[in-house]
Amino acid sequence: MKELKIITNIQVLDYNELVEEDKILVDKAKAMTEKSYAPYSKFNVGAAVLLSNGKIVGGSNQENAAFPSGTCAERTAVYYAHSKYTDAKFHKLAIAAFQDGKFTPYPISPCGACRQAILEYEKLNGSPIKIYLYGSEKVYVVDGIGKLLPLQFDSF
Ligand code: THU
Known about the structure:
Blueprint: E1 10-13, H1 20-32, E2 44-51, E3 56-60, H2 73-84, E4 90-99, E5 102-103, H3 112-125, E6 130-134, E7 139-143
Parallel strand pairs: 4-6
Antiparallel strand pairs: 1-7, 2-3, 2-4, 4-5, 6-7
The structure holds tetrahydrodeoxyuridine (THU).
């Protein structure tokens, strides 16, 4: 029997170790938590995408009384970004979550549906989208959403 081993390298950093460009992106994701509409979960998530044209586009989770109709922050951000700047590539994506009056100490990670949605733009890019998962104690940096979605589904 053969075995496949899948290894994901995650950089673990303090916010202060980020370069200025990355701090700005993470700050935008943090700010976007204030635009979240999450009356049901009370879990406010923000996301921000840095595009090849230098623009940063944000998104937040938007909930609905009919629960499945809501959308995560990451999908709001990537769909909005590609709707607005269709020709731009996605360089980086940051995510932050705010709950009970503070940012989560450790990062939250995108749900499966968001990973698949982000992957679509990574494929379109032809290059990895660097992912920044913010926590007030630690920031995780992953070199591409493909790393968070091993054995991914791709079109035939
Ligand atoms: N949520 C996001 O927006 N992004 C994630 O990565 C995980 C979860 C949202 C969905 C829902 O509005 C709330 O957080 C609680 O699950």
